[in-house]
Amino acid sequence: MASSMNSLEAIREKIDDVKLFLSVSLSIANAHTVDFYTCDVWDQFMAVPPVEVLTEITLNAKKITFGFCDDSKRLVDVAELLEAAYAHSLPGLGVCDSLTLHMCLLTVPSAVVDSDEFMNSKKSHEVQAMSEVVASLAQRCRVKQVIDVGSGKGYLCSFLSLQYGLQVYGIDSSSINTHGAQERNRKLKKYSRAYQRHSKANRTLTVVPPSGQEDLEDIAPGERDREDMVKMSGDAEKEVGKGRRDGEAQTNTTVLTDRNEEDAMTSLTSAILLEDNSLPELDQSDPASAPEDPFLSALCVGMVEPTSPRVPPSELSLEERERRKRENLERKARSWVNSGGMGGGILYSPLTSYVTADTELKDIIGELEDAVMVGLHTCGDLAPSTLRMFVAKQELLSVCSVGCCYHLLSEEFDPTRQECPSSSVCGFPLSGYLREQSWFCGRNARMSACLALERVAKGQGIQMESLFYRAVLHVILRDHYSSFKSEKRVGNVYSKATSFVDYVWRALRRLELDESKLSDDVIQGYHDTYRPRMVEMEAFNMLKVTLAPCIEGLILLDRLCYLKEQEDVVFSTLVQLFDPLLSPRCYGVVGVKAPGTELSE
């Protein structure tokens, strides 16, 4: 991995290439759809008909220049722009390292459970991929603590603690989220009780050696029948449902707010049965030390209720069963502590705190040790703040950050910003290289960076009609109201409207404007006038989608450049962690400054 292709100089050259391209094309990304008709955006930027744009996007012809006229700065060759846009995206620049290669070099501690076993497809995909990288970094840096900034509902935290035995501190500014994460842990105990009540069914479904002993670490993935897992999950779910009908309290702030997420956690507990390499070794010479239930063995002692031994009830008296149960639990507790587990079994601690680059982690985490810092879809300025904390805090030996919500980034050199925050807290640019050049993108361009090219290409496109309605409404506000730049927001009126006329009436009421100035016929007349030009808006927005990866690429290259500028960061890279169709914000920034690491530039 010590390649000149990934050196600081090489990254700066890539940044220059993207900047050159965006200096010509960024005006399209910064055009606001609301102003599309009031500012005659199409004629302002385009010198080709919209049908040509849509045709070329479909054909994706191959040429090598940018496609803009030097004199008018208007787009004259769509195919050239498309080729240039791809060439200046992260895949086209070739700056992302192979995740597979990194995982081979880092040595994954243990295989994770099948992503289809729990959560919805998007969240399980993200948690599985991210947890592999985080667990590998923790192993490489020889740490047991993970700090998840912007942890939200705690999905990643829970999985890292359960699957890999890591001590995870999930920090979120929302007390609702942290309370929900605590409720999630409470529900894990409830699920474990459901498993205990169905231990007999589990014994029937699971093949157990005659001795009643079973070495979990020797069981390869897939050896247990998947249908058995589903049946056990169903049993647990029924038991949980029964408890709920009996009046168990439910809070509005719980993480598991819908049926899918409840099914997810039930399936997670079953999936953990497949394999877990973080369990302490048991004394196989003593039958009482054999795991009573694979699920219980996968959880730390503090997270489960007492259980019965894996011996047929007819063979033991009630007193003997109780005695052996207590001895077994005590033995597991001692073994867990001796194997390096967290004393007391508390592996996941949700914390409520507002975090910035200047936050003292020791003030939040009393037992702070060397740790890996992570952020899964940290919003706006929190992602660059995570990287700043990683650089500034000696306890943080590694970082894996996946950002999102680029439109919420604060830009140090954006001339249109209303407030002037301190340069130390601005989210962009982060690197000294771009700060020296006073580079800025603009809010509309950062909004465009949030668009999902891969999804649009697969037909999961933009809600064009809602954008069209909003742009025509802007024309009406300009023509009939003295001030059409209202402080109030139209909001999500489109989803409730039955027609364009209904949409306008709802919007006027939301904006508290005089409805007597308009009639249904006048409103419909605006719709009919601009409807033939809707194709212009569609074509223009497709161009914005095409430019989105380039803008996102510059933001992420800036973050990577920042890490490479730090002398004590011995390794840094960009890695595509997720499938962009499932999770469009799919790139992770990884950095390591741990002494003794085998990774180097």
TrEMBL record:
All copies of domain Methyltransferase, residue ranges: 122-411
Q: What is the lineage of its organism?
A: Eukaryota, Metazoa, Chordata, Craniata, Vertebrata
- Alphabetized Gene3D superfamilies for the sequence: Vaccinia Virus protein VP39 (3.40.50.150)
Organism's domain of life?
Eukaryota
Quick one: where's region Disordered?
A: 208-254, 306-330
Regions of compositional bias (Basic and acidic residues) in chain numbering: 221-248, 318-330
**InterPro entries (alphabetical):** Methyltranfer_dom, METTL25, SAM-dependent_MTases_sf
What is the annotated signal peptide range for this record? Answer: none
The protein's name: Methyltransferase like 25
